[in-house]
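From the thread on structure requests for the teaching lab: each student submitted one protein with a one-line request. Submission from student K.M.:

"Model RING-type domain-containing protein from Tulasnella calospora MUT 4182, tokens only."
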Amino acid sequence: MARHSKNNTSNSVFSYAEYKKLDYGTKKQRLGVDSMKDRLSCALCLQRARDPVSCSEGHLYCKECIYTDLLEQKKEIKRQQVKLEAMAKEEEEEKERRKGAARERVLKDFEERQLGLGTKKTIGERVAAEKEDRKGKGVEDGTRGVKRKFDFDQDEVEVATREAEEAALRQIEKELAESRRAKLPAFWLPSLTPDSSVGPLKDIKLQTLCHASSPAHVLTLKSLVPVTFAFSSSSSQPSTSSASTPASSSTATPTNSSSESQEAICPSCKKGISNSVIAFLMRSCSHVVCKTCTDTLIKPSHQCIVCDKKVKDKDIVELQREGTGYAAGGRAETTKTGVAFQG
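Reply posted by the TA:
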């Protein structure tokens, strides 16, 4: 009789309690609102962005953080370029070695054929026979039994030699691929380890990337756009002074010390810009406006409501956010990769 509940070990599958205790497979868990970073936080240091700048996809960074990250990426690119140059040099040397082996094989086949040691056709003869078959030339009835005379010049000899070497090179590469193929499923043996061949080195592009996006996109210093938020001063000043001076309820560019405790707002409708609000950045003037004001005021007139500067549709970039304000929305998700067993 099988035991009950958590002590039941006779089943062929894991129970829920056993699965939770066993560190198997990949586990995912969505984080709550407390784990989401603030809307004005840097994607690298996770603190309130100082001198904020944005990439072309709308990810927010501190100016110092993104400059430091791009500098480190460029240093790593220089190191990778040295490795690529060494790999390219090794690839050229390997090609030269294979060409030399192919040339030696053609000469060896020719010498064996001349000495009567070779029973098979040489590579050059096979190439010539294939060439004749492709041309489809036949012998006329009137010329049967007549010995044909071949006149070769220097160019034809060079072409035939090159074709024979190319055929020998293809044969060598085929033999090398067959030797590298694992005959048994014993991948732990060094001689049978599968080889992950790298593609052409010319297709590898080394560029600085934006790590906040998934997948990462190309990021350069020229594509960075400064961001200017409008802040509410009601949190740092008494309510009486804010009521008496409604015109000064928001400031466009406050200092870093005063903006730490202030809330970013839309300069038009004075709505707070949080994770639950979609905001757009005007690349031409660096102002941040909420979606409602952008759709109703900026896009129809193609003009910024703060500085009256002309704005094109391609200059309106949505600022990325980590959450959406809903329980099931956002990208705040943690993943833990466990051990995967193989039978």
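TA comment: The chain has a mean pLDDT of 75. The first strand starts at residue 26 and ends at 30.
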